[in-house]
Write a structure and sequence with these properties.
This protein is mainly alpha-helical. It has one domain. It is built from two helices and no strands. Helix 1 packs across helix 2. Pfam families: DUF1146. This is DUF1146 domain-containing protein. Keywords: Membrane, Transmembrane, Transmembrane helix.
C-alpha cells in the first residue's frame, strides 16, 4: 500500500515538472504573431492549455517508461 502512495507522489512531481518545463518551452514561441492583436487573454489561455497538454503527454511517457523499466526486474 505504501508503494502506491510513493508512486502517486512521484507521478505528481513528474506531472508538475513536465508542465512547468513545457510552459517555459512554449513561451519561447512567438504565438502573438498568430493570434489577433486584441486577443491577449485568449492567447494566454491557449499558452496555458498547450503547456498543460504537452506536459501531460511528456509526463505520461516518462511514467510509462519508469513503470516498464521497473517491471523488467520480473524478467530475471
Amino acid at each position: 500500500m505504501k508503494q502506491l502512495g510513493i508512486h502517486a507522489v512521484i507521478s505528481l512531481i513528474i506531472y508538475f515538472v513536465c508542465i512547468a518545463l513545457a510552459f517555459q518551452a512554449i513561451k519561447a514561441i512567438r504565438i502573438e504573431k498568430l493570434i489577433r492583436s486584441n486577443r491577449v487573454f485568449e492567447s494566454q489561455v491557449f499558452l496555458l492549455f498547450s503547456a498543460i497538454g504537452l506536459g501531460y503527454l511528456v509526463a505520461q511517457f516518462i511514467i510509462a517508461l519508469i513503470d516498464t523499466s521497473m517491471q523488467l526486474s520480473n524478467l530475471f
